[in-house]
Design brief:
Blueprint: H1 13-24, H2 26-32, H3 35-41, H4 46-55, E1 65-68, H5 75-81, E2 87-91, H6 94-103, E3 112-116, E4 129-135, H7 143-156, E5 157-168, H8 176-179, H9 181-190, H10 194-199, H11 202-212, E6 216-226, E7 231-239
Parallel strand pairs: 1-2, 1-4, 2-3, 4-5
Antiparallel strand pairs: 5-7, 6-7
Helix pairs in contact: 1-2, 7-11
The protein binds S-adenosylmethionine.
């Protein structure tokens, strides 16, 4: 039996197969949730990525926010601190939700609402969130899972709401890291869906997902392009 199958129970196949060591294995979870490791993985850009994401985060008083999937580092406590109505967080891995709970245990006055769900089929009502935050999720999904997740996100967000996405930019052909073939090879081994994500037009995909629910999206403000166009932080608003 391939080793990854030990992590399969209840998990999407791609998550167990390609990311068991990062998100499902206890030792991996312990290892990766350290600031120097997170920062090293993001080439020293973590604080800037966080700052640009939080700079665009303006929850309405009483507005509902969903952080779609857990992340390592301090994004969840930082969002919770800025969200009066409490923060919803959904992830398919219970061990990741436990980590999010532990990290926010001190925030007694602001509730965290963790939910164990597959992002491809969310158990939230349509039009029930004002803001959805996606932090480095999409590039870790195969195309069909990405498409389903975007469609679900556009279903649960209400017109007038906003979507905050922090991700890799489109194909960074001119970036020195991308041009260094051994690095490109290594990154594609660790992140097998990133090469496909690099080729996609995110705005078109979002527009398509919005149209399924009779909505459309518009970019709001300027995209932050970080690390010479390797990463981006971008906000979209949703309309009918
Ligand atoms: C947000 S992504 C990447 C996070 C990024 N590498 C970081 O930590 O900053 C990782 C999370 O997505 C979750 N995940 C992946 N596919 C999912 C799916 N289909 N539904 C729900 N959660 C998913 C994993 O369990 C994991 O907790």
């Amino acid at each position: 039996m391939p080793f990854y199958r030990r992590f399969l129970a209840g998990m999407p196949e791609y998550l167990a197969r390609y990311y068991w060591w990062a998100y499902l294995w206890r030792a991996g979870i312990w290892f990766f949730d350290h600031q120097p490791i997170i920062n090293a993985i993001l080439f020293g850009q973590y604080q800037r990525l966080m700052a640009e994401t939080l700079r665009r985060y303006h929850p309405q008083p009483g507005g509902r926010t969903l952080q779609l999937t857990c992340v390592y580092g301090s994004l969840t406590p930082a969002l919770l601190a800025r969200t009066n109505a409490g923060l919803h967080i959904a992830d398919v891995a219970p061990q990741q939700l436990d980590l999010a709970r532990r990290k926010t245990a001190q925030s007694l006055d602001k509730p965290l609402y963790p939910a164990c769900m597959n992002a491809e089929s969310l158990g939230y009502a349509s039009d029930s969130f004002d803001t959805v935050v996606l932090f480095f999720l999409l590039h870790e999904m195969p195309p069909s899972a990405r498409e389903n997740t975007l469609a679900e996100m556009l279903r649960i967000i209400h017109p007038g709401g906003s979507i905050l996405i922090t991700e890799y930019c489109e194909l960074p052909e001119r970036h020195c890291l991308y041009r260094f073939m051994p690095f490109r090879w290594l990154l594609a081994r660790l992140e097998p869906f990133l090469p496909g994500f690099w080729q996609e037009n995110l705005q078109e995909k979002l527009q398509h997902a919005a149209a399924i629910h009779g909505k459309y999206i518009r970019q709001y403000g300027k995209q932050a392009s970080l690390f010479s166009g390797f990463y981006r932080v971008i906000e979209y608003r949703v309309f009918i």
